[in-house]
Amino acid sequence: MLLKLKTTDHHNISICPSVCTWIGVTCGARHHRVTALKLSSMGRIGTIPPHIGNLFLLSGLSFANNSFHGSFLPIELAGLRRLRYISLEYNSFSGQIPSWLGDLSQLQDLGLYSNNFIGGIPTSLCNLSKLEMMYLSNKSLRGSIPEAISNLHNLLEGA
User: Fold this and answer.
1) Cα 35 to Cα 115: distance, rounded to the nearest angstrom
2) Those residues with Cβ within 8 angstroms of residue 131's Cβ, 6 or more apart along the chain or in another chain
3) Residue 142: partners with Cβ closer than 8 Å, 6 or more residues away
4) Starting at the edge strand that comes first in sequence, how are the strands of the sheet with 45-46 ordered?
5) Among 73, 38, 31, which residue's Cα sits nearest to residue 56?
6) CA-to-CA distance for 97 and 142, rounded, in angstroms?
7) Reduced to 3 states, what is the DSSP secondary structure of residue 77?
């Protein structure tokens, strides 16, 4: 994703020290690998490239308030097992909320509101035992709230 914004070569994105100086990119001090992408309100347009799934040390992903779109979030993001927060509010994503989000066991904050997601809340989100905040409000979401959501004992806030 990052080099796709700058160039077409994406093979060394997670270890390239120069990437760590880019605005919105946070790298770990020890290994200089990308640990967070904070590209909110930066006027970005397009889809989220699947190459972001290669950033296996990523703990934060914030693309809120841009013009990202697409009928789904790339399945490659499902491998980002260290993600603690995802902020995709105020974009134009569509389709159903991916059930694989429920496999991101470290997730504490999930923000998907103000998009064009349809369908219901995936039951798999109820597997996120560390989830503290979940923002899904959307006029296009339909269906009942899964009963198992009451098992999210760390959930402090949600809409």
Assistant:
1) 25
2) 107, 108, 109, 110, 125, 152, 154, 155
3) 118, 119, 120
4) 45-46, 67-70, 92-96, 116-118
5) 31
6) 12
7) helix
Q: pLDDT band for position 1 (50/70/90)?
A: very low
Tokens coding 24: 């919105």
Alpha-carbon distance 21 to 143, whole Å?
A: 44
Residue with tokens 């899964």: 146
CA–CA dist 102, 91 (Å, integer): 21
The sign one gets for the Cα dihedral 96, 66, 133, 143 is negative
Strand order in the sheet with 85-87: 25-27, 34-38, 60-62, 85-87, 109-111, 133-135, 157-158
d(CA 21, CA 155): 34
Give the up-direction half-sphere exposure of residue 77: CA atoms within 13 A in the CB hemisphere: 21
Of the ranges 62-76, 85-99, 145-159, which one carries the lowest mean pLDDT score? 145-159
> What digits encode the pLDDT tens for the residues 106-142?
999 999 989 888 888 889 999 999 999 998 877 667 7
Give every CB contact of residue 138 below 8 A, 6+ residues apart in sequence: 112, 113, 114, 115, 116, 117
* The token pair that represents 153 in the structure block: 């004992």
